[in-house]
C-alpha cells in the first residue's frame, strides 16, 4: 500500500517548531554518510540562511509498505521527481529531497538501510553535479520524526535489531518565497 501526504506551513513556524540544527547534527554524526556526501553535514554554510530566505514550506511525504531496499530507492526517486517538477513550475522555490543524495548512484546499502553512494566528497573532490544539489530536511536541521508525527499524523517505525520496519516514510518539500 502507498499513501501520499502533503502539508504547507510557514517557514518561520516550521523553524520554531521543528528545526534544531545542533541536535540533528549530532544525529548525523552517527550516520556512515556524515562528511562523505556533499548533501550531508558538515557544511561550509549555515543552513539557517537557506531556511530564512523562504516564506513557506510545502511538505510532501510518501508512506509505503516495505518490500526491499530497491523499493526504497524507487519511492525516493518518485518523490524526488515530483518535488523537482514542483520546483521547475514554481518561481523562487528550492526543493528539499528525502534522505541523502543518490545522484551519483546508490551502489549498496548500509546495515541501517541507508543508500551507500559514490559521492566525490569521499575522494576529496568537488561535486560533479553541483547544479543538482538539494539537501534533505534532516541535513538542514529538521526533526523529521516530529514533523511527520505532528503535521501528518505518521509515527515512524525504526529498524531494530536487524528487523525491518513494516513501512517506510520519505519526506521532502519545496521552500517557496511569496
Tell me what the structure shows:
The chain has 178 residues and is of the alpha+beta class. Helix content is 30%, strand content 22%. It has five helices and six strands, in the order βαααβαβββαβ. It has a four-stranded antiparallel beta sheet with strand order 1-2-6-3, sandwiched between helices. It has a two-stranded antiparallel ribbon with strand order 4-5. A hairpin with a 5-residue loop joins strand 4 (106-109) and strand 5 (115-117). The model has no long low-confidence stretch (mean pLDDT 89).
Structure described in brief:
The protein has 178 residues and is α+β, with helices and mostly antiparallel strands.
Give the topology, please:
Blueprint (H helix, E strand, L loop, with lengths): L1 E9 H8 L2 H9 L17 H6 L3 E10 L3 H21 L3 E4 L9 E4 L5 E3 L26 H9 L14 E10 L2
Antiparallel strand pairs: 1-2, 2-6, 3-6, 4-5
Mean pLDDT across the residues is: 89
Radius of gyration: 15 Å
Return residue spans where pLDDT drops below 50 for at least 5 consecutive residues.
none
Compressed to H and E, one letter per element, the order equals EHHHEHEEEHE
Distance between the termini: 35 Å
Number of DSSP E strands: 6
Number of helices: 5
Based on helices, strands and strand pairing, what is the structural class? alpha+beta
Question: Numbering strands along the chain, what is their spatial order in the largest sheet?
Answer: 1-2-6-3
Tell me the β content.
Answer: 15-25%
Q: Which outline best applies?
A: globular
Properties at a glance:
globular, alpha+beta, 178 residues
Amino acid at each position: 500500500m502507498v499513501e501520499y501526504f502533503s502539508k504547507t506551513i510557514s517557514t518561520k513556524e516550521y523553524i520554531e517548531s521543528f528545526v534544531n540544527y545542533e541536535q540533528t547534527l549530532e544525529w548525523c554524526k552517527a550516520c556512515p554518510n556524515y562528511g562523505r556526501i556533499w548533501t550531508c553535514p558538515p557544511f561550509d554554510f549555515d543552513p539557517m540562511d537557506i531556511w530564512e530566505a523562504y516564506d513557506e514550506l510545502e511538505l510532501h511525504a510518501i508512506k509505503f509498505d516495505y518490500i526491499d531496499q530497491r523499493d526504497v530507492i524507487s519511492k525516493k526517486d518518485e518523490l524526488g521527481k515530483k518535488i523537482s517538477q514542483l520546483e521547475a513550475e514554481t518561481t523562487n522555490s528550492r526543493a528539499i529531497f528525502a534522505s541523502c543524495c543518490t545522484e551519483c548512484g546508490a551502489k549498496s546499502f548500509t546495515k541501517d538501510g541507508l543508500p551507500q553512494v559514490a559521492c566525490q566528497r569521499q575522494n576529496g573532490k568537488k561535486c560533479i553535479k553541483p547544479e543538482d544539489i538539494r539537501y534533505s530536511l534532516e541535513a538542514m536541521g529538521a526533526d523529521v520524526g516530529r514533523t511527520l508525527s505532528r503535521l501528518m499524523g505518521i509515527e515512524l517505525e525504526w529498524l531494530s535489531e536487524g528487523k525491518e520496519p513494516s513501512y517506510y516514510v520519505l519526506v521532502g518539500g519545496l521552500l517557496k518565497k511569496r
